[in-house]
Amino acid sequence: MAAARCSGRVDRAYGTGTGDCGLRTLMDAFLVALLNGLVYGLLVFMVSAGLTLVFGMMGVLNFAHASFYMIGAYAAYFSGRYIGFWAAVGVAAVVVAGVGLFTERLLLRKVRVYGHTQELLLTYGLFFVIEEVVKLLFGPTPVAYRVPEALRFTAFTIGQSEFPFFRVLMGGVALVMFFVIYAMLTFTRIGLVVRAAVERPQMVCALGHNVSLIFSGLFAVGAGLAGLAGAVAGMYYPTSPAMAHELGTIVFVVVVIGGLGSLNGALAASLLIGVMTSFAVGVEATFGDLIHRIGLASTGFAGLDAVQFSSIAGVLPYALMLVLLLWRPAGLAGNRN
Amino acid sequence: MVRFAPVLVILLLLGLPRLVDMAFLNAMVLVLIAALYAMGYNLLWGQAGLISFGHATYFAFGASCTILMMQAIEKGSSFPTPLLPLAGGVAGFLLGLVAGWFATIRTGVYFAMITVAITELVRAIVQRWDSLFGGEAGIAAGRPAWGPFGLQKLVDVYYFTLVWVVLGVAFLWFLQRSPLGLVIRGVREQEERVSFLGYDTHALKTLVFAISAGISGVAGGLLAFTNESTNVTLYEGAYSSTVLVNTVIGGAGVFLGPAVGAALTTLFGYYVANMTVYWLLYMGLLFVVIVLYAPRGLSGLAVEAMQTLRAGKRLAFPLILRRGIGAVLLAAGTILLVEIIGAIVAPVYWATAKSTGVAWPAVTVFGLAWTPAAPLTMATIAGLFGLGSLLLRGAAGPARRNAAALIGRLTGRAGRAP
Amino acid sequence: MKPGLLFSAAILSASTMLASPAIAQLAIDVILPMTGPTAGTGELFKNGIDFAFSEVNDAGGIHGKKITPRILDDGGTTQGGTDRVRQAVAGGAKIILQGGGSAVAAAISADVKRWNERNPENPVLLIMMGAEAAALTRKDCHFYAFRTSTNADMRVKALMKALSENNRLGSKVYAINQDYSWGREMDAAVEENAGPYKYQVVGSVLHDVSKIQDFSPYVERIRDSGAETVVTGNWARDLLLLMQSVASANLKAKFATVFLDEKGNIASAGKAALGSFVATPFVAEAGGAEGEAYLKKFNEKTGANPISAGNNAVIAIRLLSRAMAGVPEKDSTNPTAVALALEKAKAPWVHGEVSMRAEDHQLRLPLVVGEVSTEAKFKLDGTDMGLKPVKTLTAAETEVAPDGSCQMQRPR
Amino acid sequence: MTGRQPPSPPVLVIEGVAKRFGPIPVLSDINITLKHGERRALIGPNGAGKSTLFNLVSGRFRPTSGTILLDGKRIDGQPPHLLSRVGLSRSFQITQVFGGLSLYDNVFMAIMSRHSRRWSLVQAGPAWRAIRAETDELIEHAQLTGLSRRLAGTLAYSEQRALEICMTVATGPSVVLLDEPTAGMSRAETAAMVAFIARMTEGRTLMMVEHDMDVVFGLADTISVLANGHILATGTPAEIRDDARVQDAYLGGGAH
Q1: What are chain A's partners, defined as 3 or more CB pairs within 8 angstroms?
Q2: Are residues B196 and D84, on separate chains, in Cβ contact within 8 Å?
Q3: Which tens digit of pLDDT belongs to each residue from C343-357?
Q4: How many Cβ atoms from other residues are within 10 Å of residue B138's Cβ?
Q5: How close C264 comes to chain B (CA, Å)?
Q6: In this complex, does chain B touch chain C, defined as having at least 3 beta-carbon pairs under 8 Å apart?
Q7: What residues make up the domain containing D102?
Q8: How far is CA B105 from CA A116, A325, D98, in A?
Q9: Overall domain count for chain D
Q10: Domain B2-274 CATH assignment equals 1.10.287
Q11: Given Cys at both, which of B317, C175, D66, D139 links C190, Cβ 3.0 to 4.6 Å?
Q12: Residue C4: per-residue pLDDT
């Protein structure tokens, strides 16, 4: 959309300072916006991977999943003071997996007998409790959990904008995570059992597999993944008690759009949302421009036409989810309608 | 004796202004509004089995429209003042009709996610439409007088709110006992059977959603009338989660359950918030404990006790006493632990330690001074937790088994993916 | 269903008896966001208040009486603010100190104004210590409301004046702010000062408040505009993330901010913060010996540094205690008398005397523009960087004349 | 109960109906015509497509091709609630009653719908007196009066099945579809249920899916045999018993 045309307001955001608009600079800007979107999408995928698997199998949308992401960040921050960067990330993933196991085994299991709604409500309560406990232990303001100096350099440059190595690292960890889970699910025996349990838990149980153990294991691994994501992304984004709240809703949107229980769907949805918000922010046009372009007279419409596209970037994922839920609830790649 | 319960409650509420000081009266206005809002919300959950995660939109829209109507009155419109909350109610109803039509196409988790999506969309539009909704600073309008009533003082506002809340609850009680109420409960039980009996269940669920949104709009209107202002932060998630918490703590299955939950959490928030910064943590823990051990909420527990009494069986008082004490001990232990940790973590603690030269300055909890690292403190905390969990040891078994049967039917169906 | 009613009657009556404790007659209440999304800001104010009241009480209190204010938590929401005003008034408070954002301050100011109109014989005095929205001392001003912090015009004027005099401003300025009252006023102030300080606004953007996860697209737009200086009034998360994106995208442009010295910002920006500016009420190095002493005493008392809003609280309480001391003891909790005294009150401050402006109850105070650099004497956030003073502007230099929109009904 | 051919026009006509789920054909070229008051039984081995056909007629699924007419009007693809209003009602293989409501309320709701009083908030007025009277009368007719105050969820299995049939006829349908009404019942209960069905569906057109041959031969005027998606044969119980094709496809060789 921006690349297609050279002159006009929309393009000013991408033209070089001096106003000329060589096609190369347009391509650079397009590429940068695409990369920013992809990296942010991959981060969101890292967190939602665990959630979509757990939902697929246990039919419960875990509200506390984003809290595991937060615990991962704080665990890595806390242990990072005593052990190295990579070790701290590893410890964080293990600690959060432990918390996940505890949650499933001792809490969720007690409530499962009452049906999915009580499980949903329990995770809703856990979300609040975990946020307040983090505030209790680490205080309300963000903690100084930062990218270590060794990793703060520029990976490559596109036009004038440098792309930091750490964003590439985050993207890399997410991709590795996707392929590891994908491989585990498709090629290993345990993966087969997990996929079967996602479809028909009762049947798998009848075949003699200890389904409850698989549940706990999957829940713990799901939590561990979110913890790992938190440990890695916590360095780049502020680690504060509000981080779970901010990311929480976006992760649900990704799981729903991607199709409940489908890993590929979650990856596709996260990338789509990441790129969409990145591009929407890049566009400088307003609704007013859109109305003119379509030829309608701008009636002012109570000040709405002066609203910039970029200022509604945050709402696009929800609009997409609403359309999908009404038209195709199974989501992009889900099978459960 | 039970026949007089409603009259007893209303008499008590009528006499309240003479019994209490202004701060508590203001708290009671908020309790009444929260109770009506929770009752309206529970029409969807308790009666139709649909859990909405974005009900703040209709509450806030009701508030905005009531303020806009109050502004119209200031500019000379002859709209009758007592009907102002109704303006909020109608606005909530209409918005609920549109949103409900979309949301009730799906059930269970999908329904919940659609309500979240609609909330975010409405919030995005409202926050940008400054000329109408006033953005962050919001919109304000004075309370117009009406005939003999000045409606300026808090006592007038209290009675005004009380009248509307009693009307709202009476309407919900009347709806629940009406044929329409019967069909709505049928939809919760077996939606397909209802459609095979000739009812358009999608239209029914849309109507129920709209009525629930309308009642929430009335509650929003009452809040706007009390505050004489409203702004876009009302559309945020906080009001969607508090109404859910109230309904769970109070109990979705009992008619007045959500109102009880609303009363407790509002008073808790109003008073305890000034005593300790960690009141949200205590509320969260209470919520989790209730979901775990009292799935039908506090009113559910009371109804169970009533039913055992009515069935002639004697209540196991020693058991209840034992559990009560156990719970109190556990709560005290948790509060002591949390307050001490909270004090130690704060930088000001170490500043006073350095300036006063005392290694572990005392932390006052429950009016007593505790030295954090002292063995006495450690022993007390351990003792409280140990004794408390001992007393509660047998608690889980019986309570959970019979609750499982009833609750499974009530909410199990609502949560199942379609 | 019927048993449910009986039970709820019991709960309601029980809670009535239990919950109306007799609250001691305290003249001063403080309303802060101790919980909720802006709990961090609440902490800053609380440190300032603890320090200031310890200063007053160590010097013998007011009229010989030591004062410990009651802290009420508004949870950072306008509804919380409205409830706490009612609770304070019902508890007999005559003076309310309010710390926190503009939205909550506007709600509380409107409530106090309505209360005073309806109860002229029992008014309440409000001092807003941190809200920066201009309207509070312009069209929404009223006699019983005072503000001891700046507004967008004062901050931008101070920044531009200091930067242009040290030719650090450049000719291309970009404005990025949050899409609500404060952000829009900052945006307007940047446009206004383009003429006097001879720069061109090459771009401006207003974005959602506390919602943006990733600021890199905005950083690209700033880079493409060729701006040399970027002015932003962002705070907390929106400043933290902005600086983070700036750090990783290696943007050359320097930032002129209002809240960069808030906890965590410089730490998260790392090297990218170097060379950026902040206009703030207190920079230790600019205060010389007195500044150093104030920093040490503040740290000893609260365990934390005096950061932006905390200083506004100290100034507010110094002015209030002098005003209350200035009136006879029986009037010291009579809001009208204290308000009249407060209009003329002056108080010492590290960087020069502060005084209240009678027309619109807006504070006149010096501001220091500091530059983030490694040579700064006092470090921040546990990093090797701190604020090196660029220019200390006196109260006269920072003052922006009232725009006449404040019509205050003075008591008869 | 041998069939007598009533002269009136056909009530339910299923012409050339087929259904496929993705690539798998489940039903193909189904033609059935029901006269007013006729009692048709659908029999056939498991997986023959009996339930699918029921779901097509009762509006749960939409046929891939072909038409279904009720009293001459097309009803295929119509949602269940519109079908109920034009006089077609069904029971389910797995009992669907409102467990949390009393037996009386279950029937009351069905009668309400017949009087198209579906939204009212008030129970006063002559129409409601008629509805309450009809409810009592139907429960009396079904000899379930003793259980009318009990929660449906607490009833015995056969009582719940009886209640469901009560509700199915309560909406005053002209055509009643019964999906294995006697499934899971003992011999004695089955005999009682057959008498109950006869009594409750008197004068109405009936189509029934059933495995128990005694029930089929006891109730049905005509029988259609369905095998892997096709209608093998249609005729009176006697004709079907002696039909060679039915025997080897379904009854497994000689009648025994």
Answers
A1: B, C
A2: yes
A3: 999 999 999 999 999
A4: 23
A5: 15
A6: yes
A7: 10-251
A8: 20, 9, 21
A9: 1
A10: no
A11: C175
A12: 43
The residues of chain C that CATH labels 3.40.50.2300 are 24-150+284-365, 152-280+367-398
Measured in degrees and rounded to the nearest 5, phi and psi for residue D224 equal -115, 135
Under a CB-based contact definition with an 8 Å cutoff, are residues C197 and C227 in contact? Answer: no
- For C48-85, how does the pLDDT look when each residue is reduced to its tens digit (9 = 90+)? 999 999 999 998 888 888 888 889 999 888 888 988 99
Query: CA of B144: how far to CAs of B227, B365, B402, C96, C213, in Å?
Result: 13, 47, 53, 28, 44
Query: For C104-163, where are the E strands, in sequence order?
Result: 125-128, 145-147
Q: Do the chains contact at B229 and C110, CB–CB below 8 Å?
A: yes
Pairing state between β D230-235 and B363-365: unpaired
Q: Judge whether A313 lies within some domain.
A: no
Average pLDDT over residues B320-327: 86
Q: In degrees, to the nearest 5, what angle opens at C-alpha C47 toward C-alphas C45 and C52?
A: 95
D touches C (3+ CB pairs < 8 Å)? Answer: no
Question: Mean pLDDT for chain A?
Answer: 79
Type of residue found at A183: A
Question: Dihedral of the CA atoms B255, B261, B262, B268 (nearest 10)?
Answer: 160
Give CA–CA dist A158/D164, Å, rounded.
71
Summary mean pLDDT of chain B: 86
On whether the CB atoms of residues D205 and D86 are closer than 8 A, the answer is no
ipTM greater than 0.90: no
Q: Do A303 and B346 touch (CB under 8 A)?
A: no
CB contact under 8 A, A303 and B415: no
Q: Report yes or no on D245 lying in a domain.
A: yes
Please enumerate in sequence order all residues whose Cβ is within 8 A of that of B73, keeping only pairs 6 or more positions apart, or say none. Answer: B79, B81, B141, B144
Q: How many CB atoms lie within 10 A of CB C198?
A: 11
Strand (E) or helix (H) holding C391:
strand C386-393
Domain that holds residue A87: 25-284
Q: Name the 3-class secondary structure at B38.
A: helix
The whole-angstrom separation of Cα D239 and Cα D226 is: 15
Residue D97 in contact with partner chain B when CB distance is under 8 A: yes
User: pLDDT, tens digit, for every residue of C125-145?
Assistant: 999 998 888 888 888 889 999
Q: Which residues pair with C138 in a beta bridge?
A: none
Test B284 with A59 for CB contact under 8 angstroms.
no
> In this complex, do A314 and B124 lie within 8 Å of one another by their Cβ atoms?
yes
Per CATH, domain C24-150+284-365 is 3.20.20.30? no
Is residue A204 situated within a structural domain?
yes
pTM: 0.86
**Cα distance from A331 to chain C (closest Cα, Å)?**
24
Number of folded domains in chain A? Answer: 1
Cα–Cα distance measured from residue D118 to residue D111, given in angstroms and rounded to the nearest whole number:
10
User: Which residue stretches of chain A are H helix?
Assistant: 9-12, 23-58, 65-80, 85-102, 109-112, 116-138, 165-187, 189-199, 201-206, 211-236, 243-258, 263-282, 287-294, 316-327
Q: Are strands B229-230 and B139-140 parallel, antiparallel or unpaired?
A: antiparallel
CB pairs under 8 A between B and C: 166
Query: Per-residue pLDDT tens for C378-402?
Result: 888 888 899 999 999 998 888 888 8
B88 neighbors A296 (Cβ within 8 angstroms): no
The architecture in CATH of the region C152-280+367-398 reads: 3-Layer(aba) Sandwich (3.40)
- Euclidean distance between CA atoms A161 and A16, whole angstroms: 12
Tokens of A205: 């149980």
**Residues D31, D14: contact at Cβ < 8 Å?**
yes
Within a domain: A295: no
Residue of chain C minimizing CA distance to B309: C3
